[in-house]
Amino acid sequence: MNVITHRDRAALVAQTADRLTALLGELIATQGRATVAVTGGSVGIELLAALADRDIDWQHVVITWSDERYVAADSPDRNARQAREALLDLVPIPAENVRELPADDGTPLDAAAAAGSALLESLGTIDLTLLGMGPDAHIASLFPGMPGVLQPGVAVIAVTDSPKPPPSRLSFTVGAINASDRVWLIVAGADKAEAAALARSGAAPETAPAGTAQGREETLMLLDAEAAALLEEDGR
Ligand SMILES: O=C(O)[C@H](O)[C@@H](O)[C@H](O)[C@H](O)COP(=O)(O)O
Predict the structure, then answer these.
(1) What is the ipTM of this complex?
(2) Per residue in 21-80, pLDDT tens?
(3) With the CA atoms of 51, 96, 124 and 45 taken in that order, what torsion angle do they form, in degrees rounded to the nearest 10?
(4) What number of CA atoms fall less than 13 Å from residue 29's CA on the CB side?
(5) 57 lies in which domain range?
(6) Alpha carbon nearest to ligand 1 atom 13, residue
(7) CATH number of domain containing 208
């Protein structure tokens, strides 16, 4: 995992938007398409908002989510709704390129997770998975000490007892995250400093799920200075 520290939250968001814009351009030029699993969370949504006025060929970008709150499609809690309002409704991305994880339409959560796994399989290799990180070092909806963290395989799983509301969620497994070519963790704020250090320390996945994230080609932890405060100098 390579660590890149930014001056502050605004610089983290702006420079990550630059980095992502450049990556999308490269991927579209070389392979004709770019597939990105985006994240909820305040930093993840700010990053999406920052992309709205960038020069990106949205016709050739496919978007999905590394996790989703299992709530109604129009709930303000839904990551996909927040992403639409911040970015996807503002740019010319084809509707079929926006591949949401299932919303709660009354389908049992396990069946929704199976539909999510089928969606994941249909997407093929994901070029980039974006992740936020909680102060408890959770990523996606994989929380410390919960069975989902250790669930094997490349799949979307049901999470029924998230310690952070809402309790019902869908989440990529660690295997699904790590099947991506690239994984970027985007982390801001002093309340994340301990978790960032723990994730970098080689702590067990049950303790620090964030430490297990590893892209096939690239793994970046992108932080602001506050979140990086407890990292060793040589780890920055
Ligand atoms: O699923 C959730 O309830 C949140 O979205 C959560 O996983 C979030 O991504 C991280 O806690 C980082 O949040 P911030 O970006 O706000 O720091």
Answers:
(1) 0.96
(2) 999 999 999 999 999 999 999 999 999 999 999 999 999 999 999 999 999 999 999 999
(3) 30
(4) 7
(5) 2-235
(6) 41
(7) 3.40.50.1360
